[in-house]
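User: My collaborator sent over this chain with a note saying "see what the structure looks like." That's all I know about it. Can you take a look?
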Amino acid sequence: MAHVGYARVSTLEQDPALQLDALAVAGCTKVFEDRASGARADRPGLQKALDYAREGDVLIVWKLDRLGRSLPHLIETVTALEKRGVGFRSVTEAIDTTTSGGRLIFHLFGALGQFERDLIQERTRAGLVAAAARGRKGGRKPVVTEEKLERARAIIGKGLTVREAATRLKVGKTALYEALRVHEARARVTVAGIRHASDLSVC
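Assistant: Without extra context I'll predict from the sequence alone. Here is the result:
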């Protein structure tokens, strides 16, 4: 069984000595390092540490925030290690997944992570419902507003092209084409509905 260490500092100016000393005391025989922000996904040192660890080994960090970009990422990484038979230990928080107590803590972390995701989804749905109740829809506002669409139709009616109309209104040609297509489709549906209603009244 090998103790594999991982240390990370955010900038080139920061000194990882404190982490390296703690990892040495923890018995790490192999240490990998990164000098990168915790938010970055591309951390070659971490990837090398994960690739190096074998079944029965333990990956050790000074603090939990040295490993995970976020709680979900931390849980995902440790869970992946566990599936490979690799343990995880955080020196500062005294968490060790090779013990029953450490595994329990991470199961609680997993539950908290799912709880957080559920809360975010619930708040998002509630926000969309509230917005709809006030007459608004979620998502990005259309580039071609109803006002610009009417102006574009008036410009095109005077003999200008769609490209020229788009330039005058400072909107994308593709977006204007799409807005005009949708408008025409709705108009056809409306006309068809009126004709159908008229036929029924005649009958």
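A starting point for your reply to your collaborator: The domain at 146-202 is CATH 1.10.10 (Arc Repressor Mutant, subunit A).
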